[in-house]
Amino acid sequence: QRLFSTFPGGLPGAGLVLLRAAAAIPLVYAGLLTVSSPYPLILVVVAGSAAILVLIGLWTPFAGALIAISELALALSHRADPWTFIHYGALGAALAMLGPGGCSVDARLFGRKQIQFPKR
Question: On the CB side of 107, how many CA atoms lie within 13 Å of its CA?
Answer without folding.
Answer: 17
